[in-house]
Amino acid sequence: MRILLAAHQTQGGIGTVAQGLARALPGALPDGDRIDVARGWTDRRLRESKLGRLTFEQCSLPLDARRYDLVHLCDFRPLVLSRSRFLLTIHDVFFLQNPEWFPGRVARYKTFMLDLAVAKRPAQIVCVSEWTREQLLEHRPAIDADVVVAAPSGIAESNVTYRPELERPYFLTVSTIEPRKNHLGLLRALRRARRDGFEAVWRVVGLPGYASDDILAALRREPGVELCGRVSDAELDGLFAGALFVATPSFAEGFGFPPLEAMVRGVPVVCSTGSALDETAGEAALRVDPGDEDAWSDALVRLATDAELRERLAAAGAERAAQFSWSRSAAGYVEAYRRAV
What we know:
Blueprint: E1 2-6, H1 12-28, E2 34-38, H2 44-48, H3 50-65, E3 70-73, E4 86-90, H4 94-97, H5 104-119, E5 124-127, H6 130-139, E6 148-150, E7 170-174, H7 183-195, E8 201-205, H8 213-221, E9 225-229, H9 233-242, E10 246-248, H10 257-263, E11 269-272, H11 277-280, E12 286-288, H12 293-305, H13 307-321, H14 326-340
Helix pairs in contact: 1-14, 7-12, 10-13
C-alpha cells in the first residue's frame, strides 16, 4: 500500500493535524507499506500563502497522486481534476451548522467544496472527533455512515514547566479571533469579575479570523487585555508556562487543541461545555456553559484565588492529555487506510 499524505497546510488545526500525522504515520505503518508526505512548494512565502496552497493542491498534487493507492487529504477540499482514490479528514462543519459565523461567500464556498468532495465518493472520511462525525452525518445524511469514522487527533509532548507569574498574574486564551470563539462573552464576564476583585491580565494569542473587526476593537479598548497576535512556538511555550490558567470560551470546537496544549504543559484549564470539548477536555477542566457569562465570571475568580483548585486541574489535565498521542491517532488512520484500499 502506497499512500500520499497532503501536508502542505501548516497553520491552524488543519496544519497541526497534518504535521502531527506526518511525523507519526511512517512509524505506524506495517513493513511493506509506504507513506510519502507532500509538504507544498519549496518557497516558504508561496507555501504559506492561500494562493500557493491552492495551486499546489489543485495543480501539483493531482499529478503526484496517480502514483499512489490512496491520497490522504487533511481538509475537505477535493482534488477537483483527480480521479485517484482518496481519504478526507474533516475537522468541523460549522459552515453548515452555523453559517452566520462566516461571511456568506465563505460559507457557500466551503459548502460547495464539501459537497463536491462527497460527490467524488471518498473511500473513507475520518473526523477528528465523534461529535464532528455526528454533525457531518446529521447535516449530510446521504453520506454512507459506514465510510465515516472518528480518529481523535494527538498532542505533542512538552517539557514546559508550569510556573505562573504571581507578581503580575495573567490568564491566557489561544485561538483565532472570530465570533465562534466567544471572546466578547468572556470579555463581559471579565468585567463582572473585575467588580469582584479579579486583577489578572487577559492575554489573547491568535490571528484575526472572520468578522473579527468589532471583536478586536473591543479587546483593544479594554484595560487589562493584551493582544499578542501570532507568536512563535517558543513564545507560546513561555506564555503557557507563566499563565495562571487557560480559558477557552468557544461556542463550539470540532476538536479543541488549546485546552489540550495547556494540559500537556500542566496548566489549569477552564473551557466551555458541549461540542467536541466534552471528548477532549472531559472532566479534567473546569467546565462552563459558553453562554453563561455570570458562571464564567465566577470561574475566573475561583481560578485566580483557589490554588488547590489550580493544582487539581493541572494534575487532571496532564493525565487527560496523555491519552491523546499522535501514535494513537496514527493507528486510527492506518485502520482507515486499510478499509479505504
